[in-house]
Automatic annotation (TrEMBL):
It comes from Siminovitchia thermophila. Keywords: Cell membrane, Membrane, Transmembrane, Transmembrane helix. The chain crosses the membrane at residues 6-30, 42-65, 71-90, 111-131, 137-159, 171-189. This is Mn2+ efflux pump MntP. It comes from the Bacteria. PANTHER family: MANGANESE EFFLUX PUMP MNTP-RELATED (PTHR35529), SPORULATION PROTEIN YTAF-RELATED (PTHR35529:SF2).
């Protein structure tokens, strides 16, 4: 029964470290953006390496980067994405212009890398916590955090592109922007 308890803990940590990924997937889905597998994979490869950083360099990170500083960086990135999402959609209404809605047609490597680093800030903290609390489960925890990161983005994107897009309709850009801002605020207060 100890293996069942360990399996539960590993998956619970992996899932909780990536709940923000679900919100990002939903937000992109609301913007009519289907996240391709390669895009999601790049995000989570970066998350994997940041988890490794958290695990293997835990003592250095705790001395150099405070949790407050990492939360502030993550907040700035997500809040900016949210603001720009809302601004791009509604700036024409504010200034009396008929500005077309900005859609992302081709995801870029640069977007994946920026988003990967923004989302994986929590992976550093999760890796640090795993190294301290569960020394014997480090590799299963790293794999769990990485796999759940991919799954959470995928699930969020499917939900955002189907259910939530139909529910929010013309307000989907506003909701997507607010979700990004909420994720940022959550990072700030963790």
């Amino acid at each position: 029964m100890e293996w069942l308890s360990s399996f539960f803990i590993i998956n619970l940590i992996g899932l909780s470290a990536n709940l923000d990924n679900t919100g990002v997937g939903i937000a992109y889905g609301l913007k009519h953006f289907r996240i391709p597998s390669w895009f999601n994979a790049i995000i989570n490869v970066i998350g994997f390496f940041n988890t490794l950083i958290g695990v293997f360099l835990a003592s250095i990170i705790s001395q150099v980067i405070s949790p407050t500083a990492t939360g502030l960086v993550s907040f700035c990135v997500f809040f900016s994405i949210g603001f720009l999402t809302i601004y791009n959609r509604y700036s024409g209404l504010l200034y009396g212009k008929n500005k077309p809605m900005v859609k992302i047609h081709q995801p870029t490597l640069r977007q994946a890398i920026i988003l990967g680093f923004a989302l994986s800030v929590t992976n550093i903290a999760a890796g640090f916590g795993a190294a301290v609390a569960y020394e014997l489960l480090i590799w299963p925890l790293i794999i769990s955090i990485t796999c759940w990161g991919y799954i959470c983005i995928w699930i969020g994107n499917v939900i955002g592109n189907t259910v939530f897009l139909k529910m929010f309709g013309q307000y989907s850009s506003l909701v997507a922007g607010l979700i990004f801002m909420a994720i940022g605020l959550n990072q700030l207060f963790q």
